[in-house]
Design goal:
By secondary structure, this protein is of the alpha/beta class. Helices cover 33% and strands 19% of the residues. Bound molecules: adenine.
């Protein structure tokens, strides 16, 4: 999978891809992430990529020209499955969206800054708009990183069997059950006996029950679907 991220602050994005699972996915050749600094696509002497709003009002707007130049260059080089704009008024990210996006080959992520982008960018180029939650960030970059992490860990081969994404919370609309590791007794705080019983059908049933109970208690909304 190739992910092209368009941003005015590429430095903000790099380090998460230099550690842990995202780093390994790149080393294994399963993911190629490229950063594009929008300022490299402006003809403006001061490398300005934003301007005042027509009609007045506080806050700057990202101009269409550098974004058009950058997206047009990328789309002339390969076909893209999605051109995604990170924005608080997009569809809220959920596991199902991450599952679907993990099956794509080429994706562009456009990170908004200031008040956002000129509406014509959204009308002409964007195929999907994603929010990571009902709060406003200073830009789309952190949202893009969260989206990348959620997608990349689902790409076949990125996680080993021992960390399989299939048992994650939300994969079956349930939260994950409680988990424990050694020692089985720490200061008298014991692990549930069933987990050390070696009876695997019983363990499976216990985990299913616990996942259901946890979901009912913490996220009853998930059980409505
Ligand atoms: N940009 C600013 N706020 C955002 C949010 N909540 N999700 C995605 N992109 C954003």
């Amino acid at each position: 999978m190739r992910i092209d991220i368009i941003t005015v602050v590429p430095d903000m994005l790099k380090s998460p891809f230099e550690a842990s699972i995202m780093k390994r996915s790149i080393e294994k050749g399963l993911v190629d992430v490229q950063f594009h600094n929008l300022r490299d696509y402006t003809t403006n002497t001061y490398k300005q990529v934003d301007d005042y709003q027509f009609g007045g009002g506080a806050g700057m707007v990202m101009m269409i020209e550098p974004i058009d130049k950058c997206i047009s260059k990328l789309t002339s080089e390969r076909d893209y499955d999605e051109i995604i704009y990170m924005t608080p008024d997009g569809e809220t990210l959920h596991q199902g969206m991450a599952n679907q996006l993990s099956l794509k080959n080429n994706v562009i992520l456009l990170c908004g800054h200031y008040k956002g982008v000129d509406q014509r960018v959204r009308d002409q180029f964007i195929t999907k708009e994603i929010s990571i939650g009902d709060y406003v960030l200073s830009g789309g970059e952190l949202g893009a990183l969260i989206l990348c992490d959620a997608i990349i860990r689902l790409i076949p081969g990125v996680l080993g069997n021992e960390t399989s994404a299939l048992t994650d919370s939300f994969q079956d609309n349930l939260l994950a059950p409680p988990i424990y590791t050694r020692p089985a007794n720490y200061k008298g705080w014991k692990v549930p006996e069933v987990l050390t019983s070696g009876n695997f059908p019983k363990i499976e049933t216990w985990r299913e029950e616990q996942a259901y109970l946890r979901t009912k208690e913490r996220r009853p909304d998930l059980l409505k679907d």
